[in-house]
């Protein structure tokens, strides 16, 4: 072992490299480093072959290390040639942040196990990049070596288990890189991980955070992820999802699995999902959520603003409140009208919402088509439409993001931007 303070001029620690800006030779920004790709070989030092960089549009692409001319504090300089094709990990490749950090390995000197906290890469005389050092931390006390929590730097050949299975790896470092991502970007990051690693990370995410990400995954990925979770946890995630998204996902599950999860959910949450599953996918009933902002007419503007500020309310639904007679859970009492957030912001906090209603816009019925809803949203510049039954009770609301989601091609999340544009154009011309 050597002291963790030892450094080489060309040595780069990956955890510190992540997030570094990438520039072309003219100084124009290209993106930021997201991860480093290595090849773990049976003999010799593991080789580092490239970086995964995140370019504008949240696309992740592969940049070979051979095209990097310099790695400086706060900057990575490239030759200027970057292939914008989306990065797809090969079976022989290992992601340092995604798959090596927090991995438990065994020291060959017999002093026990340690966890990898960082990985150093270094360019050799042949201009190839190799993994030359592992910064490790003792997870528990050993008989002869490091005490619990003590750190050291070791060579890759001084440990075993570097290419071990996922069960040897924690997710602390990876979760830290995902902490501030928006739901759509978190879903994209999960899609980039191998399935086993994806499930491992999902198990450590809070229910609401995982629910937000699952809502942004494609059907196949969402079904695979939910099916891999323990049934009780999967039911908790469904409860944390928007009811319409949960209904869409349950409808894609095998019937036995769907029934099992619905039975594990809270009865009222399961009832909402079952009710939504009765409608065709491309109708207002199939698109709507049963949990928009619903207020009685005597509620104040201050109450409306407080409801709109809640983090769990999607932006499209936060822009409008629906005013009804009690009961206030869908199906409600008589629907009276809607209040736009912009109008509410111009009123006194104590003003009753029943006095600033927009009654000119009618509601759609549960069986109205997505085409009808789209035209009304576009005509009146709305972010959400009320859905009422024949008795005039509010049963839900359709938001513009759900409509857009269903108008896009099924695989739009996985397609490249140019391909997506072509698919949208075809859909529009169909």
From TrEMBL:
<dbReference type="InterPro" id="IPR058838">
    <property type="entry name" value="SH3_actinomycetes"/>
</dbReference>
<dbReference type="InterPro" id="IPR006669">
    <property type="entry name" value="MgtE_transporter"/>
</dbReference>
<feature type="domain" description="CBS">
    <location>
        <begin position="357"/>
        <end position="414"/>
    </location>
</feature>
<dbReference type="Pfam" id="PF03448">
    <property type="entry name" value="MgtE_N"/>
</dbReference>
<dbReference type="InterPro" id="IPR000644">
    <property type="entry name" value="CBS_dom"/>
</dbReference>
<protein>
    <submittedName>
        <fullName>Magnesium transporter</fullName>
    </submittedName>
</protein>
<dbReference type="GO" id="GO:0016020">
    <property type="term" value="C:membrane"/>
</dbReference>
<dbReference type="GO" id="GO:0015095">
    <property type="term" value="F:magnesium ion transmembrane transporter activity"/>
</dbReference>
<dbReference type="Pfam" id="PF26205">
    <property type="entry name" value="SH3_actinomycetes"/>
</dbReference>
<keyword id="KW-0129">CBS domain</keyword>
<dbReference type="InterPro" id="IPR046342">
    <property type="entry name" value="CBS_dom_sf"/>
</dbReference>
<dbReference type="InterPro" id="IPR006668">
    <property type="entry name" value="Mg_transptr_MgtE_intracell_dom"/>
</dbReference>
<dbReference type="Pfam" id="PF00571">
    <property type="entry name" value="CBS"/>
</dbReference>
<dbReference type="InterPro" id="IPR038076">
    <property type="entry name" value="MgtE_N_sf"/>
</dbReference>
């Amino acid at each position: 072992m050597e002291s963790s303070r030892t450094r080489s001029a060309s040595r780069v620690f990956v955890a510190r490299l992540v997030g570094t800006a990438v520039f072309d030779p003219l100084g124009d920004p290209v993106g930021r480093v997201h991860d480093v790709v290595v090849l773990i070989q049976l003999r010799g030092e593991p080789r580092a072959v490239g970086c995964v960089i995140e370019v504008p549009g949240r696309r992740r692409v592969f940049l070979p290390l051979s095209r990097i001319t310099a790695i400086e504090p706060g900057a990575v300089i490239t030759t200027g040639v970057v292939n914008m094709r989306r990065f797809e990990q090969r079976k022989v490749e290992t992601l340092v942040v995604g798959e090596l950090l927090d991995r438990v390995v065994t020291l060959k000197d017999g002093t026990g196990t340690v966890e990898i906290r960082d990985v150093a890469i270094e360019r050799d005389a042949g201009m190839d990049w190799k993994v030359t050092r592992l910064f490790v931390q003792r997870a528990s006390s050993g008989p002869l070596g490091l005490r619990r929590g003590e750190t050291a730097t070791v060579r890759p050949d001084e440990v075993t288990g570097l290419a071990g299975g996922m069960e040897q790896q924690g997710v602390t470092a990876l979760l830290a890189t995902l902490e501030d991502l928006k739901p759509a970007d978190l879903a994209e990051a999960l899609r980039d991980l191998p399935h086993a690693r994806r499930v491992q990370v999902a198990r450590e995410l809070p229910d609401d955070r995982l629910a937000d990400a699952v809502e942004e995954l494609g059907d196949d990925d969402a079904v695979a992820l939910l099916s891999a979770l323990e049934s009780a946890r999967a039911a908790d995630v469904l409860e944390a999802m928007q009811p319409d998204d949960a209904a869409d996902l349950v409808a894609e599950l095998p019937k036995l699995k769907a029934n099992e999860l619905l039975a594990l959910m809270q009865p009222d949450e399961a009832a909402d999902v079952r009710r939504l599953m009765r409608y065709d996918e491309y109708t207002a009933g199939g698109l709507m959520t049963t949990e928009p902002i619903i207020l009685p007419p005597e509620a104040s503007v201050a109450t409306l603003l407080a409801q709109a500020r809640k983090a769990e309310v999607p932006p499209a639904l936060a822009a409008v409140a629906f005013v009804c007679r009690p009961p206030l859970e869908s199906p409600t009492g008589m629907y009276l009208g809607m209040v736009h957030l912009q109008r509410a912001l111009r009123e006194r906090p104590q003003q009753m919402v029943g006095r600033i209603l927009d009654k000119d816009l009618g509601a759609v019925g549960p069986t109205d088509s997505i085409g009808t809803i789209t035209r009304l949203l576009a005509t009146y510049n709305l972010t959400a439409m009320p859905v009422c039954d024949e008795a005039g009770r509010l049963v839900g609301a359709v938001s513009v993001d759900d409509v857009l989601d269903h108008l896009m091609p099924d695989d739009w999340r996985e397609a490249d931007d140019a391909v997506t544009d072509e698919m949208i154009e075809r859909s529009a011309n169909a």
